[in-house]
Amino acid sequence: MAKGGQAGGPNDGDTDRNTSVITRTKPKTKKPSLYRVLLLNDDYTPMEFVIHVLERFFQKDREAATRIMLHVHNHGVGECGTYTYEVAETKVTQVMDFARQHQHPLQCVMEKN
Ligand code: TYC
Q1: What does the UniProt keyword field contain (predicted)?
Q2: Could you tell which of 72, 92, 98, 104 is best to mutate to test the pocket of ligand 1, judged by most ligand atoms within 8 Å of the CB?
């Protein structure tokens, strides 16, 4: 404040109608929210198709893809990865489109972490 008085008040130095601005010193580094992309089990999608999905859209090697597929098969749901909102949304859309193209009922969803 240049002359004293309360900020934004009548004598805060900004005689041009209270146009004071508080500037940030520390650069803001807000971390984006993360979302888990999950595969859901069903009785019809072939195991090999699910492994292929995990390799193709989630960059898993054969071993990791097989482990995740079996986890989903045995527990009903399993995590493919954690991503920012837009990336997670894209993965879900890609998997759902791919499953539909091959007429498999595979379901892929995202949830906030
Ligand atoms: N349960 C399926 C089967 O026995 C395999 C499967 C695994 C399906 C994972 C979906 O997300 C899934 N053929």
Answers
A1: Hydrolase, Protease
A2: 72
